[in-house]
Input
Amino acid sequence: KLIGPVNIQFIEDYFIEINPRLPGGLGLISKAGFNMALLGIKAFYNLPIENQEKEFKKTKVLRIWSDHLI
Output
């Protein structure tokens, strides 16, 4: 049984890793309308979670990694 924030990663059908922490993209998840913090609190206190609280806006994210020479 997992308790607390856990980040489980898959690529397609392949398990990659599990980390005992919130995901690094939590801010992006929140921008898509998914309130993970509220769901975590409700799960901790065994409060009911409504179906609409599990939904999120369909969105795309573009991450850009760049090098800077100083």
